[in-house]
Amino acid sequence: MTVAQVARIGDLAALPAPADPNAQPNSRFAPIETSTFSITAVLSVIKREKDEDYHLVISDPNDPSVTMIVESPNPDCAVGSVFANQIADVRMAIDDQFGPIQRKRRPGIPVIVTGVGFFDVLHGQEGVAPNGIELHPLLSIFFQ
Questions:
Q1: Quick one: how far is CA 46 from the chain centroid?
Q2: Under 8 Å between Cβ of 68 and 129
Q3: Which of 64, 76, 85, 91 is the most interior residue, by most CB within 10 Å?
Q4: Ranges under pLDDT 70 in the chain
């Protein structure tokens, strides 16, 4: 991975998604899923999922209807990852800002997030982009 590309939610949401995001369960779809992106946005929703990941919905600062998901994985699931320290740092930053996430919150605060592109299968997720693009995992988060 190289330096993060500055992106907007709408630009990422307009990218063509793979026909079947699950077709490569052990590898990523280049170049999007092997790239990092940095987005300035509004943190609209944050909640804990069953797998202990934090599901964050971010929205475009100029158009709140344009949203996408970014995920802060459970650091225990990242053991051995080259991103393990960054994943743990993101979780610590979120917990420092809000306390451990136990219930859905709607912070409505500006953030800058950086993470790895990932196409998720559309399954009714709150805040999902039309093409299923996410930043997963998040590698940094800054609250403004």
A1: 11
A2: yes
A3: 91
A4: 1-2
**CB distance 33 to 15 below 8 Å:** no
CB-based contact 31:134 (threshold 8 Å): no
Return d(Cα 68, Cα 53) in angstroms, integer. Answer: 16
pTM higher than 0.85 for the full model?
yes
Q: Please name every residue paired with 38 in a beta bridge, in sequence order, or none if there are none.
A: 6, 114
